[in-house]
Design a protein that fits this description.
Largest sheet: 3 strands, mixed
Bound molecules: zinc ion
Strand content: 5-15%
Number of domains: 2
Number of strands: 5
Distance between the termini: 13 Å
Radius of gyration: 15 Å
């Protein structure tokens, strides 16, 4: 797996019916922003200021049907010391998309989060480290 940057231009969006001081919710993002993804990319990641996920629990979110992720500009600090919280959050959301592609029968019901502290996708502190169990979920042999 590799990533090739296709574009990284700022995108101006007009979001209707929410005050500027309010965070952008996943519902509004999905209905008014996600469709502006980069059409030639396999995956578009939007870096979003003040984002709140559809379930109100997260500050970043993956939308597998659209192959789009929203990553908060300042995600919560749930990473191990020394790790870059933006990079880990970015990798976390990409992992969600890869799991949904590799495990389509589980996509609607399994988050892929686990309790293996220090490993990407952990419900505790996580890092950019990937263990064998996670690798088998995102890259099925
Ligand atoms: Zn997650």
């Amino acid at each position: 797996m590799s990533f090739k940057l296709a574009d990284a231009a700022p995108l101006s969006v007009n979001v209707k019916d929410i005050p500027l001081k309010d965070p952008l919710t996943g519902q509004v993002f999905l209905s008014q922003v996600a469709g502006q993804k980069y059409k030639n990319a396999d995956l578009t990641v939007f870096l979003v200021k003040d984002y709140v996920s559809r379930d109100k629990k997260g500050m970043s979110e993956a939308f597998p049907d659209e192959m789009v992720s929203a990553v908060a500009d300042d995600p919560p600090n749930v990473v191990l010391k020394g790790e870059d919280k933006f990079e880990v959050t970015f990798a976390h959301e990409v992992c969600h998309l890869l799991q949904d592609i590799q495990q389509p029968s589980e996509a609607a019901t399994v988050t892929g989060h686990h309790s293996r502290e220090g490993i990407l996708m952990s419900t505790g502190k996580e890092s950019s480290r990937v263990d064998e169990a996670l690798m088998r979920r995102i890259n099925v042999p």
